[in-house]
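ligand=coenzyme A
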Amino acid sequence: MGDFEFVLLKPEDVEDEWQEWYEAEHTKYYTRGGRKISVEELRISVQKGLESGDMFTYGIQEQQNKRVIGTVKIGPIDSVHGLADLAVLIGDKQFLGKGLAPLIISKASELAFKKHQVRKLHSGILERNIPSIKAYTRAGWIVEGVLRNHYVNDGLTQDWLIISRFNPALNSKDIPTGHSVPPESFYPNK
Ligand SMILES: CC(C)(COP(=O)(O)OP(=O)(O)OC[C@H]1O[C@@H](n2cnc3c(N)ncnc32)[C@H](O)[C@@H]1OP(=O)(O)O)[C@@H](O)C(=O)NCCC(=O)NCCS
């Protein structure tokens, strides 16, 4: 179950069946406002990324049946500052809750650092997306800041956690490695 590879997606690799990923309960915090993505939108985004060369969408391919079970998006890459966003989504429910997410995020971070020469990865998480907070921080990312009551998702205002991970090969050793706010404070009783 834990064996997976990343395959760079082309628009024609995106399957219609993946639509159920975006309709599922567990992906409701994937977009800030809770908007559902469509597979057609994913195809367009994959195509645009390939054309611009600053956004790479990888399929997470499990190695037993060679099926794509989710995606990792690296980009947009800002080459002036060496920055990129990294967003992970495990769509196939069979692979959720198995502790796979931190492994995927670690491996995808290495890919961004080594292949795409990213100096600093960053992303944002809604406070109610506890599986995501756990997964990224278990993969060595830090909570660098918190914007309070920032976005409205499902009618509720939520904090927005700014998370990041520095490329150790392209940064000095004295960069901050601690959380500005403890991640556990977002899931005290969960
Ligand atoms: C974020 C994501 C990759 C995490 O994957 P996962 O398989 O759930 O992650 P893990 O198995 O490593 O960990 C799940 C943890 O969250 C907990 N959890 C799961 N659902 C939860 C919920 N609704 N409320 C509270 N905790 C929850 C589990 O108990 C587990 O905690 P534990 O290991 O301490 O027991 C996956 O949920 C996902 O793809 N979500 C949709 C896309 C998304 O939001 N991506 C992040 C964008 S910032």
